[in-house]
C-alpha cells in the first residue's frame, strides 16, 4: 500500500485487538494499543503467583486452549506455530460424572487440535503487541473518545484526564466501552457514547455475558487419581471443568498446577449475593473453599494444595454474536471499527476472525476515503 491511515489507536490488547494491531502495522499503519491491564492478553492472560516458599507458579486462568476450524484463522495460527508462539496440547481429555464418580467418556483422538500459547496463553498477544509499528501502553484506561470532524481525527482522554493523542482511526475491542458496567468499574460514563456511533453502540451495550469464577491450585505431588489432563464435570452445580496447566507444552513441571472453572449458575449465585463491584477478599476466600471442597468431593483430589487463589471473570465471556456475517461493526461516517469475540462467537477463534475483519475494514475504509479525496482534487 502506498497510502494508509497515518495513526490508529486500538483499545484493548486481547487477541482480537492484538491481531488487528499486527495486521495494520504490517500494512504500514502506526498503531498504539491502550489497555488498562498490566499486560496484554485479556482473557488470554496468564497469571503469575508466588508460593510462601518463593516458587513461581503460572496459570492460564482465562482461556485454557483454543481450537481452529476456519481456514483463514488456521493460516494465521500455523504461522504463529512456525514462530514458536503456539503449540498443540497433545493430552487426553474426558468427562467426569460426579454421581457415579467415574470418567464416563473420553475424547476421540481425531477431535480438533487444541492450541496453547508458549510459554503462556498471553505470549501470542505479547508478541503481536511488540511487532514493528505497534506501540503498546498498559495500565491506561480510556475514559473519553472525541471525534473532531474538522480535523478528521479521534482524541482520546485517559481515566485520570490525560490527553492520550489524536488518531486517524479507532479500533474498540472491549464491549464494556459502551456498557453501563464501565461506570460501575471506573465512575465514568462509557467512552463509546451512543451519540458518536448510533448505528451500533446500543448493540454493543446490550451484549449478554456469562460470568464464572476460576480457582488456581498448585500441588507438591501429582494428582495420580486423574487419568486425563483436562475434563468437564457432569452433575455438578459448582464446577464445570478442570485443566492441568503444568501439562501444557512449555510449562514448568516443578509443581502440578490446575485451574478449576465454576459453573455459570454458581457464579451468578455468588454475584447476586455480593454484587457486581470488585469482589472482596472474604468473597474470594469463600469461593476458593467451596470450589476446592467440590473438587475433593469428586474423589479426584485427595491432597491439600500448597497454593490456592480464586479469580472472577464478570463479563469476559459473551453469550451472543452481534455481527456474525461481517465479523465486526463499523461506522459509515468516521473511521471507527468495533471487534471482538462478541461479534462472531465466544471463542478465541471468533476473536481472531473479528480482529482480522476489523483490520481489513479499516484499511478498506481508508482506501475509499483516499480515492474520494483524490477524485475531488482532480475535479
TrEMBL record:
<dbReference type="InterPro" id="IPR002937">
    <property type="entry name" value="Amino_oxidase"/>
</dbReference>
<dbReference type="Pfam" id="PF01593">
    <property type="entry name" value="Amino_oxidase"/>
</dbReference>
<dbReference type="GO" id="GO:0016491">
    <property type="term" value="F:oxidoreductase activity"/>
</dbReference>
<dbReference type="InterPro" id="IPR036188">
    <property type="entry name" value="FAD/NAD-bd_sf"/>
</dbReference>
<dbReference type="Pfam" id="PF13450">
    <property type="entry name" value="NAD_binding_8"/>
</dbReference>
<feature type="domain" description="Amine oxidase">
    <location>
        <begin position="111"/>
        <end position="362"/>
    </location>
</feature>
<protein>
    <recommendedName>
        <fullName>Amine oxidase domain-containing protein</fullName>
    </recommendedName>
</protein>
Amino acid at each position: 500500500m502506498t497510502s494508509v491511515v497515518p495513526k490508529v489507536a486500538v483499545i484493548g490488547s486481547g487477541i482480537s485487538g492484538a491481531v488487528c494491531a499486527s495486521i495494520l502495522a504490517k500494512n504500514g499503519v502506526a498503531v498504539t494499543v491502550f489497555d488498562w491491564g498490566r499486560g496484554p492478553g485479556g482473557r488470554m492472560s496468564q497469571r503469575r503467583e508466588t508460593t510462601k516458599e518463593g516458587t513461581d507458579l503460572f496459570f492460564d486462568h482465562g482461556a485454557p486452549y483454543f481450537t481452529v476450524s476456519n481456514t483463514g484463522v488456521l493460516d494465521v495460527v500455523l504461522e504463529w506455530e512456525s514462530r514458536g508462539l503456539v503449540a498443540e496440547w497433545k493430552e487426553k481429555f474426558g468427562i467426569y460424572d460426579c454421581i457415579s464418580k467415574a470418567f464416563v467418556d473420553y475424547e476421540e483422538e481425531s477431535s480438533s487440535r487444541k492450541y496453547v500459547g508458549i510459554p503462556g496463553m498471553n505470549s501470542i498477544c505479547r508478541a503481536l503487541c511488540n511487532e514493528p509499528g505497534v506501540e503498546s501502553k498498559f495500565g491506561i484506561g480510556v475514559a473519553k473518545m472525541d471525534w473532531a470532524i474538522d480535523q478528521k481525527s479521534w482524541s482520546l482522554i485517559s481515566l485520570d484526564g490525560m490527553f492520550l493523542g489524536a488518531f486517524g482511526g479507532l479500533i474498540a475491542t472491549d464491549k464494556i466501552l459502551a456498557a453501563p458496567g464501565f461506570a460501575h468499574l471506573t465512575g465514568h460514563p462509557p467512552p463509546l457514547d451512543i451519540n458518536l456511533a448510533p448505528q451500533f453502540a446500543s448493540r454493543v451495550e446490550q451484549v449478554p455475558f456469562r460470568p464464572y469464577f476460576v480457582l488456581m491450585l498448585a500441588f507438591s505431588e501429582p494428582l495420580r487419581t486423574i487419568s486425563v489432563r483436562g475434563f468437564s464435570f457432569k452433575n455438578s452445580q459448582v464446577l464445570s471443568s478442570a485443566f492441568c496447566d503444568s501439562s501444557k507444552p512449555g510449562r514448568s513441571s516443578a509443581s502440578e498446577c490446575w485451574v478449576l472453572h465454576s459453573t455459570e449458575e454458581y457464579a451468578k449465585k455468588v454475584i447476586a449475593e455480593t454484587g457486581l463491584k470488585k469482589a472482596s477478599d472474604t468473597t474470594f476466600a469463600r469461593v476458593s473453599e467451596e470450589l476446592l471442597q467440590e473438587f475433593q468431593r469428586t474423589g479426584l483430589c485427595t491432597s491439600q494444595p500448597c497454593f490456592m487463589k480464586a479469580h472472577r471473570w464478570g463479563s469476559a465471556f459473551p453469550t451472543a454474536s452481534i455481527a456474525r456475517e461481517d465479523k465486526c461493526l463499523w461506522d459509515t461516517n468516521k473511521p471507527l471499527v468495533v471487534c471482538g469475540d462478541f461479534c462472531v462467537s465466544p471463542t478465541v477463534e471468533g476473536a481472531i476472525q473479528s480482529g482480522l475483519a476489523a483490520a481489513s475494514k479499516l484499511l478498506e475504509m481508508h482506501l475509499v476515503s483516499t480515492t474520494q479525496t483524490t477524485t475531488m482534487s482532480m475535479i
